[in-house]
């Protein structure tokens, strides 16, 4: 028993030395994976990134759905979207409500709008963004918000007359949000 007690620290120490010796190899392995990832990222050209950005920020329901899929891919860390290194930060509708009475949620339209602004400005600069992309991204916001206002509620808690008023107010708010981003420049 005494001999076993004397050997346990030696066994533990040899295991520690073994692990420490493997660490550089593991770190080197991780570094090589990072290099591959950087190579893949570097292979995305500015033109490819602009093209992808346009498909995600155009004024159509199809573009809105593609952006939603890209957001899901980003959240899951999937390579097909991560290779573009897009900026996904948002403050949603900034100083305006993200949701309106009646169940109308503008949050995701505002998120996609922020996505377009941040990524185009980063990629082409503020002047080229305003000249070549801002109007389209702003119109996409209006389209997204109008689609929110046009949704139907299958289990609607509001009577038809009240829903009509809420829907009309939603369309007016969507137009105000659009006018605000157009004026803000």
Task: Please characterize this protein's 3D structure.
- It is a single chain.
- The chain is mainly alpha-helical and 185 residues long.
- The chain has two domains: 1-43; 45-184, Phospholipase A2.
- Helices cover 75% and strands 2% of the residues.
- It is built from eight helices and two strands; from the N terminus they run H-H-H-H-E-E-H-H-H-H.
- Strands 1-2 form a two-stranded antiparallel ribbon.
- Strand 1 and strand 2 (104-105) form a beta hairpin.
- Helix 2 (46-57) packs antiparallel against helix 5 (107-124), helix 5 (107-124) packs across helix 6 (126-132) and helix 7 runs antiparallel to helix 8 (160-184).
- The longest helix has 41 residues, at 2-42.
- The chain is globular and about 55 Å long.
- The chain starts with a helix and ends with a helix.
- Residues 1-41 have low confidence and may be disordered.
Explain briefly what this protein structure is.
This protein has 185 residues and is mainly alpha-helical.
What fold name goes in the CATH topology slot of the largest domain? Answer: Phospholipase A2
- For the record, the count of structural domains works out to 2
The portion of residues forming beta strands comes to: under 5%
Reading off the top of the CATH hierarchy, the class of the largest domain is best stated as Mainly Alpha
Note the run of SSEs as H and E. Answer: HHHHEEHHHH
Which properties best describe this structure?
2 strands, 8 helices, disordered N terminus, mainly alpha, Phospholipase A2, globular, 185 residues, 75% helix, two-stranded antiparallel sheet, single chain
């Amino acid at each position: 028993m005494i001999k076993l007690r004397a050997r346990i620290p030696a066994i533990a120490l040899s295991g520690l030395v073994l692990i420490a010796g493997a660490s550089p190899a593991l770190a080197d392995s991780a570094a090589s994976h990072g290099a591959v990832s950087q190579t893949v990222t570097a292979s995305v050209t500015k033109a490819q990134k602009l093209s992808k950005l346009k498909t995600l920020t155009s004024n159509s329901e199809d573009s809105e759905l593609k952006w939603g899929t890209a957001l899901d891919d980003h959240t899951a860390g999937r390579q097909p979207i991560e290779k573009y290194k897009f900026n996904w930060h948002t403050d949603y509708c900034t100083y305006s409500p993200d949701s309106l009475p009646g169940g109308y949620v503008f949050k995701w339209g505002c998120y996609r709008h922020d996505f377009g602004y941040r990524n185009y400005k980063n990629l082409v600069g503020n002047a080229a963004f305003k000249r070549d992309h801002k109007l389209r991204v702003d119109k996409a916001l209006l389209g997204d918000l109008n689609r929110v206002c046009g949704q139907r509620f299958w289990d609607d808690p509001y009577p038809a007359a009240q829903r009509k008023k809420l829907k009309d107010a939603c369309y007016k708010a969507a137009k105000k949000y659009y006018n605000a981003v157009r004026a803000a420049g």
